[in-house]
Amino acid sequence: MALYTCEQCGMSVGIMTCGACDAELVHGAITKDDGTSVHVSKCPNDHGMVKSPMCCAQDMTCAIA
């Protein structure tokens, strides 16, 4: 299970699921045109992705297992 945690305050978010198929979203990253990386949560069945959650005005991170 992907567990996103705020490095500043320690708040965490657990299971997030796809609205189309109810599959658990998996952690991923995309590279923007300017070369920077953005954390995303992806549907393993290719229904799309969302930007990973934010807390304390910064992206929450997820350890990749």
Strands ordered across the widest β-sheet: 2-1-8
Straight-line distance between termini = 9 Å
| Major beta sheet summary | 3 strands, antiparallel
Q: How big is the Rg?
A: 12 Å
Instruction: Please give the number of β-strands.
Output: 8
Number of domain units: 1
Low-confidence stretches: none
Continuous helix count: 0
Strand content: 35-45%
Please tell me what the overall shape is: flat
Query: What pattern of helices and strands is seen along the backbone?
Result: EEEEEEEE
Which class do the helix and strand fractions yield? mainly beta
Arithmetic mean of pLDDT: 87
Question: How does this structure look, described?
Answer:
By secondary structure, the protein is an all-beta fold. It has one domain. The protein is 0% helix and 38% strand. The protein has no helices and eight strands. The strands form three sheets. Strands 2-1-8 form a three-stranded antiparallel sheet, with no helix packed on it. The protein has a three-stranded antiparallel sheet with strand order 3-4-5, with no helix packed on it. A hairpin with a 5-residue loop joins strand 3 and strand 4. The mean pLDDT is 87.
